[in-house]
Write a structure and sequence with these properties.
Blueprint lengths: L12 E2 L18 H26 L13 H5 L10 E3 L5 H6 L4 H8 L13 E2 L10 H14 L5 E6 L6 H12 L4 E7 L2 E2 L2 E2 L20 E5 L3 H16 L5 E6 L18 H8 L3 H11 L5 H23 L19 H16 L5 H4 L9
Parallel strand pairs: 1-8, 2-3, 2-4, 4-5, 5-9, 8-9
Antiparallel strand pairs: 6-7
Helix pairs in contact: 1-9, 1-10, 4-10, 5-6
């Protein structure tokens, strides 16, 4: 018996703000001028920070750094839909998310310099450190959302993954659990077109990544990730659904990584220049600025003032980052376990001995106090 062809279901794709800065009034969410200006400032500031971080790495003042340029809307807008008490777990390319949540970027620089003191989040927020092995945080976010549901707090857990990570089993397990128990979770696939050098077209056979949600009993929505208004509308509605107990949502944000994967990569070796040039015309910052200018909310004078203020802010963050004293090597043993295993206790004791008597000097006493919890 021959198999019948099943008609392909279509995923809803949301776009509100066109590349030329015109907004669809029928779809436009209710946003104050103050909030729209905040979106723009955050996006402008994180791009400038990104550019400075790349220069620091090239000068040998920073380690390998993952670029954000081109993904500012998907990074900076979703946190504006949340409360500080909600949970947020970005990916390693999540500097804009942390920044929008109030993190001082000196700590981001510290982290990418290889110093674990860079994992300091604002007091009162429920931000968590990203996972370098991609996808391993996704089931943990389901656990955070489950905890909020059990406590009946109305809290939400929001997380990100990339288009490459969406092919891993971690997402399958997380969405299976989240869908079954109607957890207050929002999963954002930040589809920037490339999983390092693997293009989206070779990542999955499905027409969209958003339609993967259907198999888990949850809504799946595709959004123009370079459209700040569309991102806000999709995420805010997903958060509202979650708070009402209506379960999780999967959102695919189509955006583009306009720079390299990291400072250790050369995207020019695998990515066509014509593709990059086409996406530059859909830049999330320039299209939002065009909208603001059309509404008489922005002009060249305000742009220069923001650029000058941002440059001073970044100078201050870089100075603060480079003013941190040398860390205590014992920090590497802290905050790893609730109860330290025997081998970790022995290793820490051995390092203490090395530091204490190295070269016959009392080196350990000259170091700053060890930070973190070592049970």
């Amino acid at each position: 018996m021959p198999l019948k062809t099943v008609a392909t279901l279509k995923v809803q794709r949301l776009e509100i703000l066109s590349p030329d800065g015109r907004a669809d009034a029928a779809l436009m969410p209710k946003l104050s001028a103050e909030l729209i200006l905040k979106m723009y400032r955050l996006m402008m500031q994180i791009r400038a920070f990104d550019e400075r971080a790349i220069k620091l790495q090239r000068q040998g003042r920073l380690g390998t750094y993952p670029m954000i340029t081109g993904q500012e809307a998907t990074q900076c807008v979703p946190p504006l839909c949340l409360k500080p008490s909600d949970w947020v777990v970005p990916t390693y390319r999540g500097g804009g998310v942390y920044f929008a949540r109030g993190m001082e970027m000196r700590y981001a620089l510290l982290y990418w310099a290889g110093d674990d003191r860079g994992t300091r989040f604002p007091d009162g927020s429920n931000d968590m450190i990203f996972s370098i092995p991609v996808g391993t945080h996704l089931t943990q976010v389901a656990g955070l959302a489950w905890g909020e549901k059990l406590k009946k707090t109305g809290g939400v857990a929001l997380t990100y993954c990339g288009d490459g990570t969406s092919s891993k089993g971690d997402l399958h397990e997380a969405l299976t659990f989240a869908g079954q128990f109607k957890l207050p979770a929002v999963y954002i696939i930040e589809n920037n077109g490339w999983a390092i050098s693997v293009p989206r077209r070779r990542q999955a056979a499905s027409e969209t990544l958003a339609q993967k949600a259907w198999g888990y009993g949850m809504p799946g929505l595709q959004v123009d990730g370079n459209d700040a208004f569309a991102v806000y509308k999709a995420v805010s509605e997903a958060v509202a659904r979650a708070r009402k107990g209506q379960g999780p949502t999967l959102i695919e944000c189509e955006t583009y990584r306009m720079s390299h994967h990291t400072t250790a990569d050369d995207a020019g070796r695998y990515r066509p220049q014509a593709e990059l040039e086409a996406w530059k015309k859909k830049d999330p910052i320039s299209r939002l600025r065009k909208y603001l200018e059309s509404k008489k909310l922005w002009d060249d004078k305000k742009e220069k003032q923001l650029a000058d203020e941002t440059a001073l802010w970044i100078d201050g963050e870089v100075k603060a980052y480079e003013s941190f004293p040398a860390p205590n090597p014992l920090n590497m043993f802290a905050d790893n376990y609730a109860h330290a295993p025997w081998h970790l206790i022995e290793q820490r004791a051995e390092l203490e001995d090395v530091l204490r008597f190295k070269g016959g000097a009392q080196v350990l006493t000259q170091l700053p106090p060890a930070e973190g919890r070592f049970p």
